[in-house]
Amino acid sequence: MAGNVAQRLAGLGITLPTPAAPVANYVPFTLGLDGRLVVVSGQVPMRDGKVAFAGKVTAESIDMGKQAAELCLINVLAQLQAAVGDLDRVKRVIRLGGFIAAGPDFTQHALVMNGASDLAVAVFGDAGRHARSTIGVPSLPMDAAVEVEGMFEIAP
Fold first, then answer.
1. Which residues form the Endoribonuclease L-PSP/chorismate mutase-like domain (predicted)?
2. Model pTM greater than 0.85?
């Protein structure tokens, strides 16, 4: 990784991890439109091979949920880098999808997902502004608190 995105990540104190291997029957990313579109499969908040934020997000743990969403996006970016080689090739973040494990009375899903969205803008600037869906779910794989997926436009 080189260039502007690497400098922004370093300035934020972020080092991208080795991308995690899929935990089921799927691929971590797919390329489409002659390599100009990359869809990254949902990533959970893994750190050092373990889920760093587990369980349900509650009204009392929104900040924890935001940190989990940010870590998920870091893992999305690691997969994206594996797909395209250089994150400076990202023209824009098209869409992020977020899944928040929470109880039926929790309604602050958007605040949690801002952890990922805010990081996308911090890393890519205006090109990081994106469409988004945020969905509350009763559980996620490996008891993760959050899962984030992404779609990116890539320069040739």
1. 8-146
2. yes
